[in-house]
Amino acid sequence: MSIYILAIESSCDDTSAAVIKDGIVLSNIVANQSVHEQYGGVVPELASRAHQQNIVPVVDTALKKAGVEKQQLSAIAFTLGPGLIGSLLVGTCFAKAMALALDIPIITVNHMKAHVLAHFIDDPKPPFPFLCLTVSGGHTQIVKITDYLEMEVVGETIDDAAGEAFDKIAKMLGLPYPGGPLVDKHAKLGNPKAFQFPQPKSHGEFNFSFSGLKTSVLYFLQKQMAADPDFIKNNLNDLCASVQYTIVKILMKKLKKAAHHYEIYDVAIAGGVSANSALRAAIEKLGTSGGWKTYIPQFQYCTDNAGMIAITAHHQYLAQDFAEQSVTPMARFKI
Question: pTM score, two decimals?
Fold first, then answer.
């Protein structure tokens, strides 16, 4: 008998639902929230309200696109954390209620594990063991994966995440939210070595730190703007290229160090920042120049999406890893 799972992702500001059959993703629907743009960042209360508006039509669309009736479902999976509690509650409550009505089990999924397992949706799939650099707005981690459900974080940020650094520096440059993709866009037209920014040191051999980089960029801009009020406007492309070059260099330096330490040269990237063109180019260069085997998921599986929740839930289903109805969402949820 086939295994059908409905998966729901609502950890931040994207409402997503996916349907998977025997490990094959049949549909992956995402509803974005534009309400946060005017505030320059995600407003938790507005995010949870938008999830309430979006979740029913998103789930309905996912089921219809997959050609699956809800009575066919074997289980319902959802993101338990990490994330915004209000947003997580919407997905949790909806999934638990629907599962109760259908009398089927629920599966709780760690959002960060799901980013890693997004690599098993499509070919080529990495072999075990492999290393994954998981980079998003809230997390920056190097993860050692020895099996579908066996992972160990060997390095992580001690302060800000790389995605947060992109967005906050973008705000300093006057770019609208979300600024990370716009930095990438302008960087393609600029000189990555036009301005030099420091690479902050961090405690731990494979750990990251991006707080100091944000501060150094801020002080640099303040100094330049005092002498030339049009400095940012006249140098926007070069500034974006230089910032992006620095962030990617920090990420790749630690990833290479971890790979040599563990002697694992199958490496992958995941998370929202893995959609960044410079990071993708850097990881691909490792494959061509260093002889490493590198893996990058499709764009639709880089940012928050239910497809990655679905593939993770599929392997948890095979392991009979089900949750109780009393489970509650977790703002912080370590791998």
Answer: 0.95
